[in-house]
Amino acid sequence: MYNENNIFAKILRSEIPCDKVYEDEEVLFFKDINPIAKVHVLGIPKAKCQNLQEFILNSDKETFSNFFKKISKVVDMLGLSNNGYRLITNSGDNGGQEVPHFHVHIIGGEPLGSKLG
Ligand code: AMP
After folding, report:
1. DSSP per-residue string spanning 25-64
2. Could you read off the pLDDT of 22-64 as tens digits, one per residue?
3. How far is the CA of 31 from the centre of ligand 1 (A)?
4. Residues near ligand 1 with C-beta < 6 Å?
5. What are the structural domains of the chain?
């Protein structure tokens, strides 16, 4: 069950601040507080879903496609389109997910190498 007290839910309710990159009615993108590369932005849908699968199963086509279109827009805004970037979504314990609100990491701004970890 979705945990209303997770950090990203608190950010969405403006109970704690974030370094906002882009926001509209359905999505929020903000800088990761502990970046692992020169550019590290998190993208979240405002819908209450814990992981990618819940987002896929619980959102309508428009909401789903809007989220990925906005990822593309933010990638452009961050200047990552030409040199590339990495998208990651962690899910569950084995996936190393710390915050149980579905999110995508957009990472780039420097060569990331071929390893995922
Ligand atoms: P994950 O391990 O995929 O759940 O990633 C959670 C991410 O959220 C980590 O990269 C954290 O650095 C990041 N994070 C945790 N708290 C905050 C916060 N208050 N503002 C921005 N990023 C955060």
Report:
1. SSEEEEE-SS-SSSEEEEEEESS--SSHHHHHHHS-HHHH
2. 999 999 999 999 999 999 999 999 999 999 999 999 999 999 9
3. 9
4. 7, 16, 18, 30, 32-34, 42, 90, 96-99
5. 7-108 (3.30.428.10)
